[in-house]
Specification:
Blueprint: H1 19-34, E1 47-49, E2 60-62, H2 70-74, E3 79-80, E4 85-86, H3 89-95, H4 100-110, H5 113-122, H6 126-139
Antiparallel strand pairs: 1-2, 1-3, 3-4
Length: 150
Amino acid sequence: MDRFLDDGAKIRGNSNLSACAAKNVKKALREAKKNGFDIDDPTSSEIVVDAAAGKKFFHFMTSKCPCITKAIGGQKGFYLLKRKRFLTVPEMGALQGWRREWIDVMLGVDGSEKKLGEAFGDGMSLNILQRLLPRALYTVGLISDLPTDK
């Protein structure tokens, strides 16, 4: 997961927590410590918290990002416990397989991180499409050879 994340020193202003998010982050921190994670250890795994989740749906993952939905992408995304900040829209795009140059172009066209975050949450990962679409075309007979993975 770390390879998709930007250097924290470059990111400012996306660590403000709502009351609900603060409660979920504290809960995740307690659970992580209870399970032996040391978030201050630079070699430890990143913990990704669904900070906006309600009590019934609260969860967090280690070294993985949960599914980015349209709603989560349009908000601040997931909270990174070790980095003490939310995912950025370019990071959400990187997780979906988009190159940083493309993300910068899309942000330059409209400038709306909210809209682009929603699009990343409403879309499908490029790596999944690259494997799925050729197989679907082969299955329905539109291409004659089963493609090989790259």
